[in-house]
Amino acid sequence: xxxxxxxxxxxFVGGGTDLPEYYRHQPGRVISAAIDKHVYIAVNRTAFxxxxxxxxxxxxxxxxxxxxxxxxxxxxxxELGIGGNIEIASFASLPSRxxxxxxxxxxVALLAALNAYCGRPVERPALAEKACQMEIERVGEPIGKQxxxxxxxxxxHVYQFNPDGSVEVHPVQLTTPVRRRIEYHMLVFFTGxxxxxxxxLRDQAARxxxxxxxxxxxxxxxxIFEQLALAGDVQGMGELLHETWQWKRSLSGLISSGLIDxxxxxxxKAGAWGGKLLxxxxxxxxxxxxxPDHHDGIRATVSRIGAEHGLTEFRELPVxxxxxxxxxxxxxxxxx
Length: 336
Fold this sequence. Notes:
- By secondary structure, the chain is of the alpha+beta class.
- It has two domains: about 1-175 and about 320-330, Ribosomal Protein S5, domain 2 (2-Layer Sandwich); about 175-315, Alpha-Beta Plaits (2-Layer Sandwich), CATH 3.30.70.890.
- It has helices at about 20-25, 70-80, 100-115, 125-140, 145-155, 175-185, 195-205, 210-230, 235-250, 260-270, 295-310, and strands at about 1-15, 30-45, 50-55, 60, 85-90, 155-160, 165-170, 185-190, 275, 285-290, 315, 325-330.
- It starts with a strand and ends in a 5-residue tail after the last strand.
């Protein structure tokens, strides 16, 4: 049995510039942090059962990969030439569609587990690129590359997406006191509103050529945010997030909504320096940066809005910035 895990991520600045519709014109940049929430993939060889069994939110048992409904598992098994005698199960710290990159994190962990299963583990740069190729080219998802790289590398990084398709990975080396300071000033809330990012991203991609100037400002803000983070300037980080969130909202009418805007504005009025909706948009998690003296007020205000609108899943999500990227956490026989 093999168990792989990969971290979910928070994207701070630059989201949208990792789409090919942008970075084919000029380099895109994103700064994001992996968090201490993961997707786990377990793979087991079933020597006496000549089937493929896949367990996620559903269970599928089939004779060949082509029969699978799960597009990513089907593509991965076909890519690696695995035709049977295998069971695959997935587990996650959080539900899907939270804006934390869960779909691509699943893909990265899946490919890591299956390559280890085949006896050919891959290094993180190749793992990230294989995940991009599988999701974008084989499965046909209208997504960018940031989530796959964040899941593979972990930690806090700046990713640069070049017109030739290459990706440069630059680690942001925070001291432990600075990292803790940043975490101490963060608040993350899961809104309970889930959405399919594909529709949002398709709309955003279709409008990219008309939004190149805005996206360029977002990419240019990445090194500024990096320097603020290195200095532990949490107020500056929050204020820059607020500014770039206004830019991002202008990219597509599907990114935000009246309810999400209401939650965000309530958090700002309660004392937040700034924040954003995490992920492509439409739902998921809201991030705020605020002085701890204002945290209780922000919690009470945004939670009240969630209750008033029947968001039964609305809750605070404690997170920490996580250093490890994708890794094999167990490799042995099932009864070890």
